[in-house]
Please model this.
Amino acid sequence: MADLLSYKKILITGAAGRLARLSLSLLLQRCPRLKVIGVDSRPLSPPEGLSKKEAQRLSLFQVSYTRGPFESLFRDHHFDAVLHLGRMSHTQADPLSLSQRLDLNLMGTNKILDLCLKNKIHKLLVLSTYHVYGALNDNPVFIAEEAPLRASIKYPELRDVVEMDQICTNWMWKNQNHIETLVLRPCSIIGPQMANTMTRYLKAPYAPVPVDFNPSFQFVHEEDMAHVLIEALEKLPLGVFNVASDETISLREAKIRVGQPAIPTPLSLVSPMAGLVERLWGFPRYLFDYLKFSCIVSNEALKTQLPELKFSHSIHDSLDELREVETG
Amino acid sequence: MVKTKFLIDEPGCNFVEIGVFPCSVGAMLKPAERLKSFVWSALSLTGRDRRRLETVYDQLDQAYPEGHDAWGLDLQRAKTTLEWLYPIYRRYFRVRCFGQENIPDGPCIVISNHSGQIAIDAALISVAFALEAKPPRILRPMMDRFVSAIPFVGTWAQEGGAVLGDRQNCINLLNKGQSVLVFPEGLKGITKSPKDFYRLQKFTQGFYRMALATGIPIVPLAVVGAEEFYPFVYHARSAASRLGLPALPITPHLLPLPSPVDIWIGPPITPKTSLNPESPDKEVDAEVLELENLIKEMLQKGLEQRRPFWAIS
Model:
């Protein structure tokens, strides 16, 4: 493990995303000599609130991970570490086209792993998701990192998410003598800047709330998650780690806390029409199961490695913040 | 107008009035009216009931300050369920609980015989642990995975304290200081034909391995009276298999009969220190068989002391 201050250059993929922007701001603030290069296939702009000196140490490039210019970045800059946060979710991609997602999530990830090895990167951090475990009725409470990844059993459209995680973990063990790789599987990340499916669901007025199920959820605030990413980069050893606090909340209580009007819905009746709901509201089919069955991850491994880690936002604070954003 | 009283004994006191309802002499001649009044009075909470529940709630509020947990417990809903179950427990099944002093203060693994076609016995044992244990607690019955997938039912059970019957899931729960209820006979225990009533099915080992993994004591428990909830039952096993159901009991009456139930709680048993969670099946089987025989003895003793089916008290 290296001291963060000894790093000279770090690459962050998915730099147009909210979490990446928060993370690169934190990195620039904490490490006064560090240069950060952000890349994304989407248009990029520097995050707000950076000082002039911090902004000078940030470079942003709009490139595809599978194209030549991305490879050149590795050759031109000698990165010490790579934060691979660029994973395309189902709601960002055209639901009718799998190729865009497969290209970024699988081919792109494969390319990044290859380039990291070729260019002797010291540390690689990959952001996966707790969705890989799947929401199933026989999920134990506190799913450990060793648990099978069952998300794609029922929903083939989640295969890229699971496969990306598996590619990274297999690669991690295979190349453990050459590069220190970390795979993080956070619970649902929420916050005023996030635009992921769960945050949008919580903030959405008249969203369906199950009356026949009431699963427990774990949420981590976007700022806490950015903080975990930086701590992980500095202190976590090679391995796979779930990211969640000790708190849980039931789905109904979370919706009430955010304060948006909801439509009580018997999900067991609506689930067969999930395809239609996805087309009308952009609500992914697989997420219906996450509204029915809990997927609570264990944070024991993270707590063992980072005993001093504190989540500054409680679940209630995080949900209250969403409520305040919505009510202005 | 005359007043009709039903009396029942209650542990710790001699006799308590369980229902007073006005009825005219004419109405007394109508069995349907009488039955309606009986059911109404049996399912209502008296002032005394409410006071008792309030005392229990105060202690449960202290034990579960957050009001919920990751396994889906919702204390408020658990209390509501308890209010529904309490009159049924006290007046419909006239439950007597013996040996409550054997319940340890801390977490424990309660193992019981399983009977009654549907898991009413689990609900009655849970009520007993909320009312009779000192301090009161929400016992966490292990439920089959198919139950957790049933709309409304799975959520209702989880909010009341039930948890998925997965070994690691329950070890995590025990490590958080909770007590679990296990039916080591599994589904075979509850789906018995009348000829097998009160015959224990072979115990599985999971509960003992959980005890070995956590060092938490095992509390043996016997339920007498639940087999008679559905005395006339036929198990359509092939139809159940074709429908993908774990069991399909067919019975002439939907409601369970009001058989008086006795719950016998034995002294806690510490798992053998010479064994560990990975000990060979043969060694664990010997310990499990000993506990199975212990519950058989408790059942036999309970059957000898049981009340007649139509006993008022």
